[in-house]
Structure formats: structure tokens, C-alpha cells
Design goal:
single chain, alpha/beta, Rossmann fold, 6-stranded parallel sheet, 7 helices, 6 strands, globular
């Protein structure tokens, strides 16, 4: 299985890093593109360098490399995940404005009717953002903002990231060992500061 991963300049770049780690553990071949602003956000939000993150992928491309394998529909993949996905990238994909390899690869995934998942990171959402998400959802894209779940009683930020990444991978039929899943049984918060009201 091959999956394209795009990382843009929105906050939450750790989602892309953890996604690459999990895909590697699952034996999935990954093709990575980090935008210019994605690389800057990576340095600002994490201890990882661009080189360290690119080493997690099987192949990494420059965002300006419009001749890369993933720019063609003849290069077969299971689809693409953009995590995090900036509002700018969302708009560019929604309107077919392919001025970077991330935009072009997403356009290819859409035209080939492959799975496109966008972890849109913006708040509050404007009408423009919502219209762009609706437009892409109607084309078959999965819009999966990294909204934390609390039924799994996360104890750390890492737990929140882990759960969201597992939900992303569910969309591609990739099972993550140890993923916390809802069973229908009510648990106890364990005194973690959550109100019982």
C-alpha cells in the first residue's frame, strides 16, 4: 500500500509526524511533501528537524517538484492525507489551484477517485472555509479536523494525537495496535478534573 502525506503550515504538525511513524509501523509505503511553511511550523512546534521527519517517509519531495511521481495519476496510491491542512491548502485544493506539489497531488487523488483526507486546522471557521470543506466533501474527500475525543479519557497531549491519528488511519483500513475504541460501556473519569454534570 502507498499513501501520500502532505504537511502544511497550519498548527498541529505533530499529527503529520505521528501519522508517518504509524504508517511506517504498519508497513505502508509513504510519499511525503512538506510545504515551506510546514517546515517552519515543524521547527516551531516540535523538536524534530525537517530531515528527521523526511527520514520517516520512504520518499520525500520538494513542494516545488511538479514533476514528482505523485503528480501523475499513473502513479498508483491508496490516496492522500494532508495533516495538518491549512485553510490556504484547503482553498487551493477545492478550486484546483495546483501551485505546489501538495495541491497537485491532492488534485490527482480527486480526479482518480482515490481517498483524500484533509485534517483541516482552523478555528473559528469562516463561511469560506465551510464552503470549501463542503465542496470537497461532495467530491468524496474526507474532512477530518483534529478535534480531540474525551471518551477515551486522554491523560496527555500525546494520547489526543494518537487517537486522532488512529481515526485517520481507520479511513484507509489501517488498524493501529492499541488504539482506544468506544465499546458502549461508560467509564469513570478517574478524577482527572472533568465535571460529571
Amino acid at each position: 500500500m502507498r499513501v501520500i502525506v502532505g504537511m502544511t503550515g497550519a498548527t498541529g504538525v505533530i499529527y503529520g509526524v505521528r501519522l508517518l511513524e504509524r504508517l511506517r509501523e504498519a508497513g505502508v509505503e509513504t510519499h511525503l511533501v512538506i510545504s515551506r511553511w510546514g517546515a517552519r511550523t515543524l521547527l516551531h512546534e516540535t523538536p524534530y528537524s525537517r530531515e528527521q521527519v523526511e527520514a520517516l517517509a520512504h520518499t520525500a519531495y520538494a513542494a516545488s517538484d511538479m514533476g514528482a511521481a505523485i503528480s501523475s495519476g499513473s502513479f498508483q496510491t491508496a490516496g492522500m492525507i494532508v495533516a495538518p491542512c491549512s485553510a490556504r491548502t484547503l482553498g487551493a485544493i477545492a478550486h484546483g489551484f495546483g501551485d505546489s506539489l501538495i495541491h497537485r497531488a491532492a488534485d490527482v487523488v480527486l480526479k482518480e477517485r482515490r481517498k483524500l483526507l484533509l485534517a483541516v486546522r482552523e478555528a473559528p471557521l469562516s463561511e469560506i472555509h465551510i464552503e470549501n470543506m463542503l465542496k470537497l466533501a461532495r467530491m468524496g474527500a474526507v474532512i477530518l479536523p483534529p478535534v480531540p475525543a474525551f471518551y477515551n479519557n486522554p491523560r496527555s497531549l500525546a494520547d489526543i494525537v494518537e487517537h486522532t491519528v488512529a481515526r485517520m488511519l481507520d479511513q484507509f483500513g489501517i488498524d493501529v495496535p492499541g488504539a482506544t475504541r468506544w465499546t458502549g460501556e461508560m467509564g469513570v473519569t478517574g478524577g482527572r478534573g472533568l465535571s460529571e454534570d
